[in-house]
From TrEMBL:
One of its GO terms (biological process) is regulation of calcium ion transmembrane transport via high voltage-gated calcium channel. Pfam families: Claudin_2 (PF13903). GO terms for molecular function: calcium channel regulator activity; voltage-gated calcium channel activity. This is Calcium channel, voltage-dependent, gamma subunit 6a. It is a multi-pass membrane protein. Keywords: Membrane, Transmembrane, Transmembrane helix. Its main location: membrane. GO terms for cellular component: L-type voltage-gated calcium channel complex. It is found in: Membrane. It comes from Seriola lalandi dorsalis. The chain crosses the membrane at residues 73-95, 172-197, 209-233, 245-271.
Length: 287
């Protein structure tokens, strides 16, 4: 009995002795016959797939380990911006409003602080306030607090604090800008996750756009909110108020800057070349 062993190479082509009676090479009509024709057909399919994979790798659509590490580092920067945004949007320490601590001629004074979604009033003891401070506060001091959610998004009513009325249009606009920026952050995170899982650099471009736009919207939300505070103070001058932006605004401002930086890093990583490698040789040659 005869035993024939077939060995396939890297591209799937069969390498080995032909079967007894098999015709090596094409038939007179030009069409392959028998096992050799089937082998060539299978090897052709494998060859096309191998060429396709090689073209994909040579075209730069896949990423190396160094590129993957850089993308993860830039993604960490963007995640820091997302966390700061969530912390700022979810808290109500955007602005503090405080009348003079001697305005009520009592042992206690009233202060208020609010954010995008709810406002709080707090009763403080005058003895606990710094003697050099003229206004009531800060809101971090211990005292009796009462918080209520704004009715901008339900009944459309304005809120009244210290006989001053809010401008719901500005407050709603600031809240919508914050929510849309969070939506863009989620879309950018999905693009980066797909880029790392599929090892495709193309998803870095839409991710960079999402993070840069989200950072711009976060900063724009901050500007609109500050305008709403100024409108609140100008609505009534019966009660003198001292206002100051609180730590939630600091989180939002830092988040906007970090998100824009993260988006710029993704833009640089999506370039087909390294800008440092192009700039540094030109400086050396000119010097």
């Amino acid at each position: 009995m005869w035993s024939t062993f077939f060995v396939t190479d890297e591209e799937g082509r069969t390498v080995g002795p032909p079967a007894p009676g098999a015709v090596i090479g094409p038939a007179p009509g030009g069409a392959p016959q028998g096992p050799v024709g089937l082998t060539n057909l299978m090897s052709g399919r494998s060859t096309f797939g191998g060429n396709k994979r090689r073209r994909t790798a040579s075209a730069g659509h896949t990423m190396s380990e160094a590129q993957e590490g850089k993308i993860k580092l830039a993604f960490f920067v963007a995640i820091v911006g997302v966390v700061l945004t969530v912390l700022g949007v979810g808290t109500e320490f955007w602005v503090e409003l405080a009348p003079p601590k001697s305005f009520y001629n009592n042992q206690t004074c009233l202060t208020a602080h609010y954010g995008l979604w709810k406002g709080c009033t707090k009763t403080l003891w005058v003895a606990d306030i710094d003697p050099e401070r003229e206004s009531c506060g800060p809101a971090e001091l211990p005292g009796e607090s009462n918080c209520t959610y704004f009715k901008f998004f339900t009944t459309g009513e304005n809120a009244v604090m210290f006989q001053k009325t809010t401008q719901k249009n500005l407050n709603v606009a600031a809240a919508m800008l914050a929510m849309f920026s969070l939506f863009l952050m989620v879309m950018g995170a999905i693009c980066i996750t797909m880029s790392l899982s599929k090892e495709i650099l193309f998803f870095l471009k839409p991710a960079s756009v999402c993070f840069i736009l989200s950072g711009i919207l976060v900063l724009l939300c901050l500007v609109v909110f500050h305008q709403s505070v100024l409108a609140l103070l100008a609505s009534n001058h019966t009660v003198p108020l001292h206002h100051e932006l609180s730590w939630s605004v600091s989180c939002i401002g830092c988040a906007g800057a970090v998100l824009i930086i993260g988006g710029i890093l993704f833009v640089l990583l999506a370039l087909p070349y390294s800008p440092w490698q192009r700039c540094l040789p030109q400086k050396d040659s000119s010097s």
